[in-house]
């Protein structure tokens, strides 16, 4: 699994690509022009078509089996195969696409049939989502939001013991680029006793890491923390769109409902554990006085290597910026190291009571804010509950999102002497 | 849609059957001995096999199309067809099975191939569940539970405006008869500051009405209250198993998670709106001073006929009762008239922000308790938060469920001069 950072691809656009070099090879579902949905792999500015590759017989052995399964209309069955199949496919794919590959001429002869331009392809959700769970493990976000509601006691007593999560709506998880409707709903104006009905006035984004579940567990079975990584298929970006005014009125006592279930956007490419391996890091040390995790959440290897150093960025492009040809403006730069719990801890906790996880289930991390305002992952935090409008570089102001605003999430890993690994984008424009 | 209560079936067991007379005809998915899952209809002590019926050509026109779709491995596609197809199938099925049917000899000749004994069939979930939503519309339950946490102010200010609901876990919805594992999880002992980990000591049931969604809506579209009934495929019983000790520790601020996601049981038969039509009733008058529903939740027809008079029963059979050959003991008898909101209001609310509903989605009503202890739909209520143990007739006591306890939910409609319509049972035994 060690990464060879010196290896280059004969596909020129892959080398120095900000997201998709030979060392990344994320999987997704795409349709080429005039074609049906099938599995593919992002490489530079192109997509490697697994359906064409399998019918052409480019793979052998376990990788051939894995590619055949991944070539279908969704990646659920591929996710179910687990890590060994995924790694076998990755190894052969890297060999095929590396500089000096004996297969280069054969692959090049297949041209755009095998390697269509990504710009010509339509991207889809990578899997049929059985269940979607949203966690709340960004401790700075929990602190920031808690402070708005409970200034003296922002973090509830369970926060440092329980990886807090709740069930989200699977039917409205949509792929990057899908427009987002501003939801109608009930809101209670300040000082009023009777709610209004109408479009949300406090529409917000949430910057999250998405986690795709691979192999599942049977109902009633737990997943040991040491095994949890084996149940993860990969990672993406996730925007948990939120209507703050609906949320404030409806969320007691059972949690957010209409405030969140109108849309959740994800980036289309599933970045694998193998691609992220060089950017593993120790779980950040718990502050003095914080409790140890309970034994079912504690594993030495997970503590040592279970976290990631992934940069997370939110950008905004307003309608005015688009009209004037202005680039999106960065609103925040954060990092996955602000997760209070590792993804292995999320998996172990989710299954510990016997809840069945299935290939294609999706987790959101919860909003991953940093401690300072330039790393806040939602407008609720950036504008201090809508009280301090944000001034944009072009003179516009925002408290919450306006119609025509496009929110763009990006993520990448980089390090000294390392090839940069990117997630691509998760975009959504408010209608 | 008017019910002919005088009509009898040539299938003797259907007449005076407590659940499945000719006037009911609920649909489900079953496997006959040695056969694969397929659609069927409960009639008396038998199951009408839709797969055999369609291959034999028993139906004509729209009913034939509907039966072909309903004969598959799940009812999702049938649910998507909507009410007209369902009614066409019902009409021809009633004609085929009624006394005096010209088809009787032909059907009888098919014997147990067409009409296997229900006792010989394995029953499955009727549909692949896309999303499962649990509501909280039993106002006495909300009052009872609220009082345990907030004695002076049991109902939160939003309760009489918002049909409160939250997303549940679809992957662990299971059919009646599936054993239920007692979940492990974190609990905070009284007075402690550090949680324990272990099996739940406060395992409970919740008596609910289940609602199967039929035709869906597109993401971003609402469903008008006047159209909501058209999106409902039918009804079942639902036991929302709950681990109260896990729930108390984890549920703030985002709602129940592991406390509920280990199992949810449903009865296998989908009782249709047509079968329940004679038991429609006006929405119970709101108490003096309660607000009117907001306009998107208000429809004259729904107010006049949107509620149901369905009796709901919980029974318990302990391991000791089984050993001694004792019958299950009734713990509560309640009624769907304790719903503060109608099912049409639940559908309209769920979709009002643009959340996509899909055929095969499942709603739970929330626990439907009556105002008095003999109608409380959970042990949390019956034992006043575990403080007053319940004495069973055989001398046993219960605060919460013990291993080997089997919880049985039943439901039925009856009325002067009316054929009784039943839901069958929803059973689950604690391992």
TrEMBL record, chains A, B:
<dbReference type="Pfam" id="PF09298">
    <property type="entry name" value="FAA_hydrolase_N"/>
</dbReference>
<feature type="domain" description="Fumarylacetoacetase N-terminal">
    <location>
        <begin position="23"/>
        <end position="126"/>
    </location>
</feature>
<feature type="domain" description="Fumarylacetoacetase-like C-terminal">
    <location>
        <begin position="140"/>
        <end position="430"/>
    </location>
</feature>
<keyword id="KW-0106">Calcium</keyword>
<dbReference type="Pfam" id="PF01557">
    <property type="entry name" value="FAA_hydrolase"/>
</dbReference>
<keyword id="KW-0828">Tyrosine catabolism</keyword>
<dbReference type="InterPro" id="IPR015377">
    <property type="entry name" value="Fumarylacetoacetase_N"/>
</dbReference>
<dbReference type="InterPro" id="IPR036462">
    <property type="entry name" value="Fumarylacetoacetase_N_sf"/>
</dbReference>
<dbReference type="InterPro" id="IPR005959">
    <property type="entry name" value="Fumarylacetoacetase"/>
</dbReference>
<keyword id="KW-0378">Hydrolase</keyword>
<keyword id="KW-0585">Phenylalanine catabolism</keyword>
<keyword id="KW-0460">Magnesium</keyword>
<keyword id="KW-0479">Metal-binding</keyword>
<dbReference type="InterPro" id="IPR036663">
    <property type="entry name" value="Fumarylacetoacetase_C_sf"/>
</dbReference>
<comment type="pathway">
    <text>Amino-acid degradation; L-phenylalanine degradation; acetoacetate and fumarate from L-phenylalanine: step 6/6.</text>
</comment>
<protein>
    <recommendedName>
        <fullName>fumarylacetoacetase</fullName>
        <ecNumber>3.7.1.2</ecNumber>
    </recommendedName>
</protein>
<comment type="similarity">
    <text>Belongs to the hydratase/decarboxylase family.</text>
</comment>
<dbReference type="InterPro" id="IPR011234">
    <property type="entry name" value="Fumarylacetoacetase-like_C"/>
</dbReference>
């Amino acid at each position: 699994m060690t990464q060879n950072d010196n290896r280059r691809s004969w596909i020129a656009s892959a080398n120095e690509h900000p997201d998709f070099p030979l060392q990344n090879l994320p999987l997704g579902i795409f349709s080429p022009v005039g074609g049906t949905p099938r599995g593919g792999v992002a490489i530079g500015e192109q997509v490697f078509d697994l359906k064409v590759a399998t019918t052409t017989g480019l793979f052998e052995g376990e990788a051939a089996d894995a590619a055949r399964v991944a070539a279908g209309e969704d990646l659920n069955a591929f996710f179910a195969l687990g890590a060994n199949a995924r790694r076998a496919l990755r190894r052969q794919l890297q060999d095929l696409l590396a500089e000096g590959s004996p297969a280069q001429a054969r692959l090049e002869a297949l041209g755009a049939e095998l390697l269509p331009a990504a710009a010509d392809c339509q991207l889809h959700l990578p899997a049929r989502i059985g269940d979607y769970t949203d966690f709340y493990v960004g401790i700075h976000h929990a602190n920031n939001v808690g402070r708005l509601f409970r200034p003296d006691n922002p973090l509830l007593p369970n926060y440092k013991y329980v990886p807090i999560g709740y069930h989200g709506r699977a039917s409205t998880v949509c792929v990057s680029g899908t427009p987002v409707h501003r939801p109608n709903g009930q809101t209670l104006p300040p000082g009023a006793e009777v709610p209004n009905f109408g479009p949300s006035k406090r529409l917000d984004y949430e910057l999250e890491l998405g986690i795709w579940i691979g192999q599942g567990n049977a109902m009633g079975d737990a997943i040991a923390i040491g095994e949890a990584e084996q149940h993860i298929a990969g990672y993406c970006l996730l925007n948990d769109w939120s209507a703050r005014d609906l949320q404030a009125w409806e969320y007691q006592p059972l949690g957010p409902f209409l405030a969140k279930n109108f849309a959740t956007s994800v980036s289309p490419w599933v970045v694998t554990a193998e691609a992220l391996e060089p950017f593993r890091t120790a779980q950040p040390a718990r502050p003095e006085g914080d409790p140890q995790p309970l034994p079912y959440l504690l594993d030495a290897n997970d503590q040592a290597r279970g976290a990631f150093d992934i940069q997370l960025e939110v950008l905004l492009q307003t309608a005015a910026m688009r009209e004037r040809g202005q680039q999106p403006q960065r609103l925040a730069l954060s990092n996955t190291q602000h997760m209070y719990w590792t993804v292995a801890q999320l998996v172990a906790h989710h299954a510990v009571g016997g809840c069945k996880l299935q290939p294609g289930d999706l987790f959101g991390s919860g909003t991953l804010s940093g401690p300072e305002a330039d790393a806040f992952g939602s407008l609720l935090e950036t504008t201090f509950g809508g009280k301090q409008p944000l001034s944009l570089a072009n003179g516009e102001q925002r408290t919450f999102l306006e119609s025509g605003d496009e929110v763009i999430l990006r993520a990448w890993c980089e390090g000294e002497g390392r090839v940069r690994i990117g997630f691509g984008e998760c975009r959504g424009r408010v209608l």
